[in-house]
Amino acid sequence: MPTLDPQRWQVALDLAAAWADDGRVPAITLATGTADRLHGPVSFGSLTVDGHAPLPPRPIYLVASITKPIVALGVLKLLERGLATLGDRVVDYLPEFGKQGKYGVELRHLLTHTSGLPDMVPSNLELRKANAPLVRFLHEIYTLPLAFPPGRAVQYQSTGFLVLAEILQQITGRSCREFLRQEIFEPLGMVDTALGAPDDWFDAHIARIPEVRLETEQRLGKPWNWNSRYWRQLGAPWGGLLTTAEDLAALAQCLLRGGDTTSGQSLWSPAALNAATTNQLAALRDIPEEERRCRPWGLGWRLNWPAHSANFGDLLSHRTYGHWGATGTLLWIDPERCTFAIVLSTQPQEPTGFFLARLSNAIAAAWK
Known about the structure:
There is one protein chain. By secondary structure, the protein is of the alpha+beta class. Helix 1 runs antiparallel to helix 14 and helix 2 runs parallel beside helix 6.
């Protein structure tokens, strides 16, 4: 079993503390562990970007794109139950989606960023400024052309995860928010996690949500930016999850146990998790060789890209999978070394993940 070197773990904690103390990162929480042990979470910084409010216990972070693989885990349950396959075409569930040459897009393309859809809809900002519901984003996706034929290239796309959420609802009769709550969050005891938080949950938890330091464009949008009530409650399936390090650790430990909860309930089969965390681009013959070999994707999960330090750092095994979030968050799970790491912060990290990569290296080095 892997063991944590306390001195090396302290190196990671000292890095985070220093960045919080000098204001480079307003708030940050670290945790790491194995399938049955948790170290941390340890938090530093302030609830507010100005540093004037203390960080509460068990802070709840907006984790941005870490939302995507969790939505993908919901879709994985459909595959296990025989309710869908990766080869199913989106138009079989959402006929309107077929406009503008999108008839050939399959679920596998949405899950691997090979659909040809854009990252965001062209009117993303206008819709957010209008506090639009998710259905308006979805209807705009229906009208969009593809940048390339599905399965021919890789283009990171948030829009595809809204489409997946709608398919999940069409198949199960439950919203993505409710499906994830009932099928994942509740069985794992993730009581401080919500996608599209209802008013009662949000009002009870709002005092524990740290402010994200906003970029120029976001600062101009108080009614719709990352810190707005609108965005925190919208439940965007591509980036709207609110959660804690404790709750994400429960999920990571379940995945390291092959999909089993601490009580022995099986949330996912080993077969499903193996598919989700295996390079799915390898079988897509029209994907450029460099993408297939050097920048692999599983089903919603980014796999380790050894030649790219960004976000994941440099010291993870080839079997590592995880995701980052634009608000300054990172989750990785290394099944070869049986470890995981969680970094949640309020300092946006795009595009290189300066803080995340360095912390990832320090945490990975602490395990032996």
